[in-house]
């Protein structure tokens, strides 16, 4: 009966005949596939195809070849070949979950031959077991049928080879005989693997944590036993009762790349018990209860009913900006900025006038003043003018000392590149006071508009955290932007950075380089800073180290060079949520007015957060090169958890109150020497927002 079902399935799906008839044939097939079908079939020249019918034939041939190669690699237990196929082809291209003519899937063969590495690779790629094995009996019957039919075919071919005289047909029969003998041994090994397998043990460990006020996170690990068959899925169950009666819910996890699951839709303040069981081809194993045995969905804000710090702030700022714009309606600058890149193409006279206009082109040299430069880069290439210069425009030729407040104002303007025309009109109206500060800032807006017009793009990118200065009185404000598409710009072209650095002739001495020479020498460092400052943290709870230092006109914050948009930090755990119970414990520790705990005590030794903090504090002190004994007076900031979205949160570790911020001229304790830098606080805040 089972054999008839499989034959009906074969006819219904019009599947291919069995794959290559021998291991050597499989190797030849794989070599052909690697060379002939490595490129996607859609990349062929469509003009060479007769029509859609030819394209469909090619697609089917491509899928047939890749699927056959995968089956043969699994049957030969060639892990390297399986991994290479999974790397170069998608599950759809491999036809990963469509049974072959024997009713088997690649995962079936891997688990029944008990090849755990190949089975895991297939599972992570999304492979499934055959849906036709609805019971242990059906699987056993089907394997017995495959073995019996293979044995019968071997006997038939052996009789033909023995009885026939040597000829070409006999030679072909001998090849078929060897192939069926090999397949007969494979099916017997699969049948023996199934018969000797047993249900899996319970997962080796199940960890339960609070993910939010309405969800729990379950993380589990594979069973320790190596004798049972490969686990292909897990079941998570939850209940309000320790006996799991009644059962409130369950979920089956068959995507095994990450062994964790978040249980949603739970009631805040209710205790839930969780257990996990594993499944293989012999069925479900016993469940493993979680550690701790139950958890209560909650969030630290429930401790005192505190609302999120930033709730409604973005909306309030948008409303405020709208009100400001309403007041300045007479500016008439609410139309989207339109580039003016085509002026040269319209008239020769206009082009000549454009060339001689004093503020309408990029500068080649600096002559004591304040300037703006925009660095656009893509891979190892950088945008330069037709004179092979980095684009530079003048802001103010009488400005020889950039005030920090003006620079910080410029960095805030960088968040509104598309509103420059509107800001210019507003500042122009306000210039009646003849304020020097307003005049300088108006010139900054003019320079930004000029750079945008010359390049033909509005977004000039992120402002580098400090301007470049030289002894000739030049100050260079630098913006950085990575271009990820094949964009074209006005008046500029792409050149390799190394070519620009080697071809440009310096006009200054090494002892007193100009700001432009300094920029060119350090451009790779600035690009690296820009790339690192755009990296995001992976989800989790982090311990951050807050260290400030003050100067006459600014406060600076210590950050790591490898991630300058985030405080010095280490990861505590992957779950970003702090539960109400954990926050209550932290408040209790803070109210004791004791230093950060370094010794395990009886009442806290079983607290997972306490243990995680111990490890994180030691790791953080090592990172910032502060001896652990010097951190005995450090404190955890207990006023709030810093939430950055829903997936990243921070606890802060603070030096003693007198040493959080170092004053000018004061000895600077608790500050590492290398691998870190200090950013102006406002620059850090802008980078954090980005």
From TrEMBL:
Short name of one Pfam family: fn3
Which residue numbers delimit the Fibronectin type-III domain?
Answer: 202-299
On the tree of life, the source organism's domain of life is Eukaryota
User: A GO term (biological process) for this protein?
Assistant: establishment of mitotic spindle orientation
Recorded GO cellular component terms are: spindle
What PROSITE patterns does the annotation carry?
FN3 (PS50853)
Q: By its UniProt entry, which InterPro entries does this protein fall under? A: ANKFN1, Ankyrin_rpt-contain_sf, FN3_dom, FN3_sf, Ig-like_fold
Note down the stretches annotated as region Disordered. 1-25
PANTHER family per the UniProt record, alphabetical: ANKYRIN REPEAT AND FIBRONECTIN TYPE-III DOMAIN-CONTAINING PROTEIN 1-LIKE, WIDE AWAKE
Q: Could you identify this protein by its name?
A: ANKF1 protein
Q: Which organism is it from?
A: Edolisoma coerulescens
